[in-house]
Amino acid sequence: MPAALTVAGLTKRYGATEALRGVDLTVGEGELVGLLGPNGAGKSTLVKIACGLVRPTGGTAEVCGAPAGSAAARRALGYLAELFRFPGWATADELLALHQRLAGSGGGAGERAELLDLVGLAEARERRIETMSKGMQQRLGIAQALVGEPALLLLDEPTSALDPAGRRTVRGLLVELRRRGVAVLLNTHLLSEVEQVCDRVAIIDRGLVVAAGAPADLARPRGVEVETASGVRVFQAASRDDVPAIVERLVHAGERVYEVRLVRSTLEDAYLAAVDAPAEPPEAPAERRAGAA
Amino acid sequence: MSDVLVVAGHALRESLRRRVFAVVVCLTLAFGALYAWGASELFQDVPNFGPNEFGLDARVLAGATILGLAMFGTLFLGVVLAVFLTLGAVRGDAERGLLQPLIVRPLGRRQYLAGRFLAAATVSGAYVLVVYAGAVIVTGAIGDWWPASPVGAGVRLAAAVVVVAALALLGSIFLSANANGIAVLMVFGAGLLAGLLGSIGEALSSETLQRLANTASWLLPFEALYRDALRVLVAEIPGVTGAIVQLGPLGGSHDAGPLFYPYAVAYLAAVAAVAAFAFGRSDL
Q: What is the pTM of this model?
């Protein structure tokens, strides 16, 4: 069974600008992969090449074993663009019916009702799109992308216009899709979203994948914090195995120990390190005392 | 083929729901009413022209002239309709984010273009035929003058609008909606102007002006189709009257010749091929 998406040595040049400089990426069947990166890193270009909207300059992209852009590849995917618009005169049901005809889906009214229910728009079936809020249109966009039961879903900033409740709905939906075996490539700036739902993360910067792996693997151990009567002591190089010795030494030195915490870097730290972004200014020294194991 | 029909149906439904057709029908009825009024006034004056020594048939002259004017008006309205149905079909819709959700479907880009062309050509062509038929009937009913070959002229007029629709669709691949609309209407105007210069060239026996008009006819076949429609309309009018009405209003009649129709079909095929090639290579 081929992977849902396989990208190898992908390059894209717009005139003098190199949007992609040799990207390798795989999204397995039923896998949920987050695509992170600063603005202009090449994320949307990668997604557009995968769905056949943009022609690559070099390299290959395959969707379920078919060359990206071919009819077979497009039959296997669903796509929600970052900047999309649906015809305002159409109702939600009419839009899905149009996409059913174009996708060759025989799901009929049952599929349309199920998809609208899945994105929380069951009551808006006959509502014209121009009367919907941006958030509702974005959820309708996800329903549209799911028409025809695609094996791969390409979502470009699918939650950018959603309120927290809408985002939670979409997160739940992504988990449900993974349960059904749908592979998802999620292009987003929301690291918390990626951390919560994605199996793997690929960080792109200046047209290259600069880091990739499971969110937990990218977030590395960053020492041990011990809360004592005299303040918080940080042991940066320490690991979980060092905790008994640290506590014993502190108690032996007359410290009263209230709490011990293993510190892990967040995905945000990993992201910022990967894209060489300027780090946050350090916290005030008075609040922290550095120590060594 | 089914994908082409789905896209064409979608485009037509959009025009219907956005009340484009309602506006077109209302304005066309107003045009028809004004035309009927003008024809009525004109034909009331025809008996006052009186006998003349050159054998001029005033009723035929009035009928052919006013119907020729109606043909120009019909062509213009049909072109406006064709342009507005296609001006933003590719780049305009892509810039608005309407195109991408459709194009990522198994539907091919060629089918999308074919669907949009089918919708625009069918609507604008049918519109021209209906309005032209109305003008013929009004002219005949009021003035008792009927052209000898009304069908041939109407078909040529509709074909001219279809060519403009194809050019507008091609332009939509390269230009944004506003720029494309302006460009196509200016090209249309330039074509008609070239035809008018050709008529003047024929009257003055100016080879330069005639060569200019002929070149424009081959480059922009809608112009030649329009002038050939005028020719068919008045071809069988004999004598002095026939000679005068052949100069005609706004361009004058002109025989496109037997090679022109295969050329017009090949021209449409070439436009379709260029459009398919360019759209197939464009990044959205």
A: 0.82
Question: 3-state class of A83 per DSSP?
Answer: coil
CA distances from B97 to A2, A141, A193, B93 (A): 31, 12, 25, 6
Q: Which helix (H) or strand (E) holds A152?
A: strand A152-156
CB A50 within 8 A of CB A77: yes
Cα distance between residue B265 and residue B251, in whole Å: 23
Per-residue pLDDT reduced to its tens digit, B41-80: 988 888 777 666 667 778 888 888 899 889 999 999 999 9
Give yes or no for a contact between A168 and A13, defined as CB atoms under 8 angstroms apart: no
* Cα–Cα distance measured from residue A244 to residue A241, given in angstroms and rounded to the nearest whole number: 7
Query: Looking at chain B from residue 6 to 25, which residues have their Cβ under 8 Å from any Cβ of chain A?
Result: 6, 10, 14, 17-18
Give this complex's ipTM.
0.77
| CA of A230 vs chain B CAs: smallest distance (Å) | 59
Mutation site, B100, B111, B277, interface A, largest A CB count within 10 A? B100
Task: State the number of CA atoms in the 13 A half-sphere of A229 facing the CB.
Answer: 6
Query: Is B110 in the A-facing interface, judged by CB distances under 8 Å?
Result: no
Taking only the tens place, the pLDDT of each residue in A41-56 is 999 999 999 999 999 9
Within 10 angstroms of residue A119's Cβ, the number of other Cβ atoms is 22
Residue A27 burial by Cβ neighbours in a 10 Å radius (0-12, 13-18, 19+): buried
Calpha distance A7→A25 (Å, rounded): 5
C-alpha closest to that of B169 among B271, B20, B76, B18:
B271
State the burial class of residue B100 (Cβ atoms within 10 Å of its Cβ: 0-12, 13-18, 19+).
buried
Indicate the residue type of B134: G
- Determine how β-strand A200-205 pairs with β-strand A58-63: unpaired
B190: CB partners within 8 A, 6+ apart = B216, B220
Q: Which residue out of A5, A70, A99, A101 would a mutagenesis test of the B interface target, given it has the greatest number of B Cβ atoms within 10 Å? A: A101
